[in-house]
Amino acid sequence: MNAPISLPVVGWRELIDLPGIGLSGIPAKIDTGARTSSLHARVLDRFERGGKPFVRFAVDWDDIAHEGEAVQVDRRGITSSNGETQQRFVIKTPLRIGPHEFRAELSLADRSDMQFPMLIGRTALRRRFAVDAGHSWLQSPAARGKTV
To answer: Which pTM value belongs to this model?
Structure first.
């Protein structure tokens, strides 16, 4: 029998940093029911740099538009929570939850009708974190008391 693996624990919501894009403190919902992670973004431009496809986008939260750009790794059909499949740009970028940093794929989607500008799905969480759905901000102590 294998010994249990000890993983860091996240709450059902955390603050996320995307250091490769220069974004930090993004409120995110942790959602093990979603396969793919998603970032609320308006795509502003598609371009090439060094022969690679890039996408420039704006991420809105706390009434501020934050611009970023990243390598576009794919464009694929993603089924949303309402069952509708949408073609979305997919980027891969470093993602930080508390002190834990790793590369993750994020689809860029219009999440303006959602409470959180970011959703962290089970693919990003798998083998990295355990989820305590009864608590918030376990990796984001500066956010404790936040009402998002």
So the answer is: 0.89
